[in-house]
Amino acid sequence: MNNIFDYATSELSQDAFLCYLFNFASNEYEEDDQYLNKCAVEMLRKIISSKYSKEKKDEKITVTQLKKQYKNIDVYIQINDKYHIILEDKTYTSQHSNQIERYKDLIENEGKANIITVYYKIIGQAHPEDVNIHITRKDMLDIMAPYIDKTDNTIFSNYYYFLNELEERVQKFETLPIDKWSGDQYRGFFDYLTDDENNADGLRLDRGYGWGYVPNPRGGFHGLWWYFSTPEELEKTGLENYNVNDLYLQIEDNTIVIKIVSGDKINDLKWNIYNYLTESNLVPGLEKKRFHNGKVMSIGYIEYDENDYQDKIKLMENALDEIRNGSYTVKV
């Protein structure tokens, strides 16, 4: 379908849609479309309940003030002259400089209480922000779905189908071969890998993780980094003596890479670890790119695809275990 949101892709366009939807919960427009009124009220009730769980289900929800870019807040909503909602809207970026906390302070300094913070993000990210409620693409689809066949509002349906098509693209990592993946599929894949429900036999995430697009002069990659080393493990191997700060794993598009971080340039040390891994056959098929001196470097990598990624992940995690448990010591 010809969809305005295929062209109006900026965060400001999304802010405008959210304001448009919330305005159906105002006294002025609540009777214009009963279904959009119900949708807006449902979304606002969900937001309020995230902090004030005792909010009564039968309390009438009315937007009494609605502003875009008020004090640089993406969307500011006042409900029932009582609740004050700060909504930060992001697409491919994330919040910076502690934005939401600063906005909250600004509203508090106006003498207002009952402040609720919302992070609205239709593109996935590794970790939720520290807010009262994080509304994702899936959340928004769930909120809008009951009304899509009841209203004939074109703007509403355009936004719903825009989100739905995005969701379908993201989930295609399950059916497309990896050489056909784009950023949408990698984001879906990384989200799947790090979801607790899917991770019983997957990544070992207890040491922390992150994922996202990593730009670099060679064109960048879609990456997921995890399985970091402890200072005790680095000391056991002797790596600490070479000013090594970390040894961890990183997915870079269709490869899984062993990464090393050091305060010094350590080309000889990289060769030493690479030779240990290949000579002990801990990682069959381990390859390396040209070694470059730097502080964050790749030791070696293997390729994976949509069918064998679990086995390849376990193989690389086990190899790192072997290095860190004392089987390997530095010999440079």
Describe the structure.
It is built from nine helices and ten strands. The protein has two domains: 166 residues, Trna Endonuclease, Chain: A, domain 1; 152 residues, no CATH class. The protein is α+β, with helices and mostly antiparallel strands and 332 residues long. 34% of the residues lie in helices and 21% in strands. It has a five-stranded mixed sheet with strand order 1-2-3-4-5, with helices on both faces.
CATH architecture verdict of the largest domain: 3-Layer(aba) Sandwich
Kindly identify the CATH topology of the largest domain: Trna Endonuclease, Chain: A, domain 1
Helix-residue proportion: 25-40%
Would you tell me the structural class of the helices and strands? alpha+beta
> From the alpha-carbon coordinates, what is the Rg to the nearest angstrom?
24 Å
Number of domains: 2
By DSSP, the count of extended strands is 10
Q: What's the main sheet like?
A: 5 strands, mixed
First-to-last CA distance: 62 Å
So how many helices? Answer: 9
> How is the largest sheet built, in terms of strand order?
1-2-3-4-5
Mean pLDDT figure: 92
Low-confidence stretches: none
Classify the oligomer.
Answer: single chain
**Share in β-strands:** 15-25%
- What is the CATH top level name of the largest domain? Alpha Beta
> What spatial form do the alpha-carbon principal axes imply?
elongated
